[in-house]
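Hi all, a correction to my earlier message: I attached the wrong file for Glycerophosphodiester phosphodiesterase. Here's the right sequence:
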Amino acid sequence: MADPLYVERDGHRTWLKWHRGRRKASDPVFTGKRIVEAMRLGASVEVDLVVHADHGMAVLHDLTLERETTGTGAIAEARAADLRQLHLRNEAGAPIADTVLLLEDLCALLARQQPHADALLQLDFKQDAAALDPRTIANFAASIGGLAPHMIVSCGDALAVEQLATATPGLRRGYDPCYGASLERLQASGDFARFTADALAIAPEADLIYLHYEIVLEADRSGFDIIAAFQAAGHRVDAWTIRAVTPITVSQVNRLLALKVDQITTDDPEGLAMALTA
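and the right structure:
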């Protein structure tokens, strides 16, 4: 089959983002091989970042090591050299041959082969601005260097995005308003227009807005096209995360495509692409 990069529907292209560097459901997360492959092909791909003890960032999702790696303890207390010795775990919890990547390690891999012009790597920072200091921000910028045009930094904290992007010329900005008090207010009020307006006010420079796909669909059921609202303000929209390919999720994805979402985050891009073209 063709590489799972995007879906064309009614004249609109929707990218299939490789969540945590996975091309298919059986892939372990955050392996250099898959991330490099995605960037070579021109895919949209996402990795997570967490600050470690040496003022750099590890390519991991959790704030602790136990679930994703062979290590233990808080990542904030782990030194870079020790992190590099840890092995990743697969979905069943078994250690695999691949070791933990730091941001600079990943960037060094990507620099060996120029990414495809369409490739976009989302760096999803899993903390907030309180976890950043000048040294960490400087190391982040130095690690990325000339790869910045192929990357976008995202977070649920717009201040963290601003600090990291300002220090890294050419780096795009992304914002996820689906966390914390804003999401709680939306769930309580159902006021999608207010939710949208607040996000636009908080992150006016964001290239991509990341929305939980169920929020997009709930807004649609209430008669509010939240994708069109963000697009009218000059922002693209990513709907996250389709975990598994089932008849229900395929139906939901088809509705997202009808709404002309710009990107769909999925743990199984290959399986989803096959289901949509079957």
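Sorry for the mix-up. The mean pLDDT is 97.
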